[in-house]
Amino acid sequence: MRLPRTDPGRLALVLVLAAAVTAFTATVPLLRDWFDLRVYHGTVDSWIHHGGRIYDYRVPGTAYGFTYPPFAAVAMLPMSLLGLHAAVAVALLLNLAALGFALHVLAGGALRRHGWYGCALAACALALFEPLRDTLSFGQVNILLLALVLLDCRLLATGRSRWAGVGIGLAAAIKLTPAAFIGLLLVAGRRRAAAVATAVALAATALAAWIVPDASRFYWTHAMGDTTRIGRLDYVSNQSLQGVLARLDLTDRAVWAVLVLMVLGVWAVRTRRAVGAGDWTAAFALTGLTACLVSPITWVHHLVWLLPSFAVLVRAGHPRVAGGLYALLCTSVVWLWFDDASGVDGFLGSNTYVWITLALLLRLPIGQSCADRSTPLPRSASDMAPAPIPAAPAIAHASGQPTAPTPPAPPRGPASAATGSFTGPGLGLARKASSDPTGSTRPAAPNPQSSSSPASS
């Protein structure tokens, strides 16, 4: 099938794709009804307007409440000025702006080359990506955190590292997972940036402790290590190593610890190579993959951290591989094993996203994502300057006789540029899943602010 080359044809294709994507997202995926945003809004509203405590709030009719560090609640204080519907609208706008910035960092050059047509196709592809769909439908903060982390990636990649670490520090204070990127800065030898990130995270945490001391004390001494507040480890949406073991009914923490150490070892080796090659995008992508694997709970919507990996694959000249893996992450295939993940098919199918994450960690190309930062290559051989004489193969004359000056070498064809654009994913499979956002069936515990009942993540 040949893609249209005229603007009217391209516009018609975009409209058809947009209609298909709209129909798909409106009818096939299980929409989440802004559940997590309702947790955030209800928590802040209860705290500010009704004198409630942050970790006591539960969404009416459920056992779910706030599970982030206290600074996240402080950062969400502006929600107290908005009604729920207004908060939904603002959250959508913020998420779209953050997504636009993330795309600018990851694929800005490719999108500029393809203009409105490339941007429109990318938007259609992203609308099908299950982690992104769930993030928007839940009203989650994942895209905002990704944008904060990629801000530091851009600063480091462009040599403007004076403020590098601020984005990572803020993201780590809002949610614990981005703290993995402080480890990246240490492995990369960027001690100043690591110190900035740590200082920002600690300052934000201290600010929250000053504003809500009781909630801070409860979170850091109890809630942080209590995974049962978030949901069941064996729930099919948990696409982490811990989720795989829980679905196998392997509860020995030592097995999980060994697997985590192995993953961290691979991450450290590959990340050092990426940084040594100046490939910060790949280094950040590898860290996002590792964070998803080693976190005790990685819900499907957390897998927006895989987006940088697809950008790296496309830039490295592997658009078909990127398209195939991306398409799998659009299908909601893991939900086919929602009721029963036993057997070989259950082991392989219910952990599909884990296998994709592992494969990317092990095989993601390194050192080929720097093309956008280098001088753009000419589009044709005629545009290239002659190659310098020292770079051409030299023939040594044994006679010792003087020779005529060597003529310039003929122009060479352009080298393979590690650039590209996102490929469109396939259509997803219909999902049959519970409307329970975290799959928990545990009742709320009566103990105020120390309840072990699962909550939003």
The low-pLDDT segments are 371-456
Which H/E pattern describes the elements? HHHHHHHHHHHHHHHHH
How far apart are the termini?
43 Å
β-strand number: 0
- Please state the average pLDDT score: 81
Radius of gyration: 25 Å
Summarize the structure in words.
The chain is mostly helical. Helix content is 53%, strand content 0%. It contains 17 helices and no strands. Helix 1 crosses helix 4, helix 4 packs across helix 6 and helix 7 packs parallel to helix 9.
List the helices and strands and how they pair.
Layout lengths: L6 H21 L7 H15 L20 H6 L8 H45 L1 H9 L3 H16 L8 H9 L5 H8 L3 H21 L1 H9 L19 H7 L5 H24 L3 H15 L12 H9 L3 H10 L14 H7 L2 H12 L94
Helix pairs in contact: 1-4, 4-5, 4-6, 6-7, 7-9, 8-9, 9-10, 12-13, 13-14, 13-17, 14-15
Overview in brief:
This protein is an all-alpha fold and 457 residues long. The protein is 53% helix and 0% strand. 45% of the residues are buried.
Keywords:
mainly alpha; 17 helices; single chain; 53% helix; disordered C terminus; 457 residues
